[in-house]
Amino acid sequence: MMIVSLPYRAIELLMGDRHYGPGLDIWSVGCILAEILLCQTGRRQPFFGGDPENPSKTVLAYVEEIFYIMGKPTDETWPGLCKLPNYRTYVSGKISSAKAHKEQGDERGFLRRFFRNGIGKPADSKYCLTESFFEMLGGLLSLCPKHRVTAAEALQHPFFTKEKPVPEWHAWHWALASADIPRGDEARKKNNDEDEARKLLKQLSKEDVGTEEAGDKTNGGKAKAVLEKWREQAEKRQQQEIKRTNSMKSAKAPEELPAGWTKHWSSSKQRFYYHDGKTGKNSWSFPSKS
């Protein structure tokens, strides 16, 4: 019996390794994180899903896409790879042409290339991905399971602990976001409305990797407009972070909160809110002592 859905199945399982561990879940987390980035730029499919018009459906297709994006491991970068049961099963021109790893940790460089110069460039343009991000995602998607980071190591990575803005949990925000998710007829209508945006994103991706054919200047101009819009959004987020920093610096002396209450900053609303650890409720106004 095979475990884990195919789009999130770790490479060691695809290679037939029967001695696996928690690294399977870490690989899936890496797939989901990368998928979220691509979905936010209009590419709504699994990270190793292949061409949207001809998506990956077989195990071979997923192995091909993994090696194409992440590079092809060798017995030096993944000790014991050649002894895995399915290693010689996957034979195709795409796998043969995939660039091989030269040393352990090459996944970081391949991911950087994918997001900086490849299909994933719209995500880099929109979110200004950092070297710390590529290092962290490369650790999650390390092809050799023994070199893959653990959950604890990932949570302590500088991408989460040092880069600004740092992650924060807003239960109320996700409750509202869930209510706003379109369903049924509304979802179908939204999908139709997004068709034009997806076409522009696809055109932008083609231009970024230099594969578009000359002559379609209208779509090319629209795609450039989308890229410019993303850059403006990135600048806006940077200004919001400056505003947050200045607000925290100019804050008055620490307020004396009731027992169990803590004060947090909301990046989405650009203001402080208060959280009751006992009830789990949040409040925009200062809690009264009662």
UniProtKB/TrEMBL annotation:
GO biological process: G1/S transition of mitotic cell cycle; regulation of G2/M transition of mitotic cell cycle; regulation of gene expression; signal transduction
Domain WW: 255-289
The protein's Enzyme Commission number: 2.7.11.22
Main EC class the enzyme belongs to: transferase
GO cellular component: cyclin-dependent protein kinase holoenzyme complex; cytoplasm; nucleus
Oligomer and partners: May form a complex composed of at least the catalytic subunit CRK2 and a cyclin.
Protein name (database record): Cyclin-dependent kinase 2 homolog
Biological source species: Symbiodinium necroappetens
Lineage, broadest ranks: Eukaryota, Sar, Alveolata, Dinophyceae, Suessiales
Gene name for this UniProt entry: ssn3
